[in-house]
Write a structure and sequence with these properties.
The protein has about 170 residues and is α+β, with helices and mostly antiparallel strands. The protein has 7 helices and 5 strands. Belongs to the TFE family.
């Protein structure tokens, strides 16, 4: 898939935005063909050099950019030539989906296996043991803690897990 096609996908735009943030998004959204230095990108995009370097490093950490170093023989200075590798984005997104699935599965089990109490005034939730330690009174305001039904939350997690299973072609 070409850079242009990838960058038109709103899911990929959101993924890149989550990675590099608003200051790094111009770097991520405008990958040049071939190699480029961080200074060239900063000048071309009219950005602070540190913001460009931060975005490049984040892209590098996520296997979406690579670099090679050149040493100037006269000055000894190193120049980094960056290349964008957005072919890895679909694989990275799939890995993120598996991480989300595992975390959501763990959280669902936690929700299923614990009893919760809620202070309706402060909106603070307590596990049974904590609520018992506080005498079933909110430590913030002194209101009684009410038993909390988290079935809607567990059902929403079940629905999201089902959707992820479909997306990832997992057997439940």
């Amino acid at each position: 898939m070409a850079f242009e096609d990838l960058l038109e996908d709103p899911v990929i735009q959101k993924y890149l935005h989550e990675l590099v943030g608003p200051k790094g998004m111009p770097v991520a959204a405008a990958p040049p063909d071939g190699e480029v230095t961080d200074e060239e990108l900063a000048e071309e995009l009219d950005l602070e050099l540190n913001d460009v370097r931060r975005a490049l490093f984040i892209l590098y950490e996520n296997d979406l950019a690579s670099y090679r170093r050149l040493r100037d023989e006269d000055s000894g200075w190193l120049t980094y030539l960056w290349t964008f590798e957005y072919d890895n984005i679909p694989e990275n997104l799939e890995e993120e989906m598996y991480r989300l699935y595992d975390a959501l599965e763990d959280r669902r089990e936690y929700e299923r296996n614990h009893e919760f109490y809620l202070c309706e005034i402060c909106s603070i939730r307590f596990e049974f043991g904590e609520a018992m330690d506080f005498g079933f009174e909110c430590p913030e305001c002194g209101s009684p803690l009410e038993s909390m039904d988290n079935d809607r939350l567990v059902n929403a997690m079940d629905d999201r897990l089902d959707a992820l299973e479909d997306e990832l072609n997992l057997e439940a």
